[in-house]
Amino acid sequence: MxxxxxxxxxxxxxxxxxxxxxxxVSVTTAYGQFTFDATVSTERxxxxxxxxxxxxxxxxxxxxxxxxIIYYDSYGHKVDALIGNTIRVAELKKGASYALGHGSGxxxxxxxxxxxETPIGHYEVSLKEGTIPAKYTFALLKKTLVKTGKPSIxxxxxLAFSDDLTGFVFSISKRQFGxxxxxxxxxxxxxxxxxxxxxxxxGASHKVMHSGVKYIGRNEPLAPTTIPPSAKLEDIVxxxxxVYYSEGKYGGWTxxxxxxxGDKALAFKGQTFTVFMPVRVxxxxxxxxxxxxxxxxxx
Length: 299
Description:
By secondary structure, the protein is mainly β. The protein folds into two domains: 9-131, Immunoglobulin-like; 135-298, Immunoglobulin-like, CATH 2.60.40. The protein contains no helices and 25 strands. Strands 12, 13, 14, 15, 16, 17, 18, 19, 20, 21, 24 and 25 form a twelve-stranded antiparallel sheet that branches. The chain is elongated and about 80 Å long. The chain starts with 8 loop residues before the first strand and ends with a strand.
């Protein structure tokens, strides 16, 4: 995802040791300003802390924000902060605020602390990274006939399909492709998940997983699902190679979104993708191929 780079630097000066007092400062972006209203306090046994809040006064919601802070002593020399030099905020909607340290303040750990810790004289704040969530609008492409009798393609915003055998209603987001399948027959319907595919906007086909499949078993053969007569199935389709595991302290399982956030999302407007889903009824396989269009993307 494309990140928003550094837009501005805000400098706050200290007036005295102990608790600082200063006017709120702003960090400017192309979409408005973040108000950084914080003080540094020296607390007995706790060292120095950054207390206050960040307010989103921009016109956008943001995710994955990272503010960088550089501290200086009263002589203007850079102070080597080991902790407290980065503030990360997972989500901050427009008009909302984030309390530093969830209200308890951010601890500032200076190299050499305990050996006459250097009092902070001032600091600089910059917005290092940040992403604006994208809002996607989808349509199901359906073949239809015009007055001339020639086939045409219509865009259906209700994301629903129905024939004599089945009824599908789809629900699509940036992170998930969901559907409800209605069995309209008097016979069971079977989905062979090993033959279902997600075809992305560049035409690449992906093996899928669905609800109940553990991440660790995403690449193993999948058992079929049976929908009894007149019953419904609610499930999802997700590319199995969009899931990966990373090692390390902050590692774990991660899902790559179906569609990105940020400026990169704008290039997806007008693109199409497909879900191929064969179903078996009375020993006969019917191949459903649902094609969708991204009709709009807004930041």
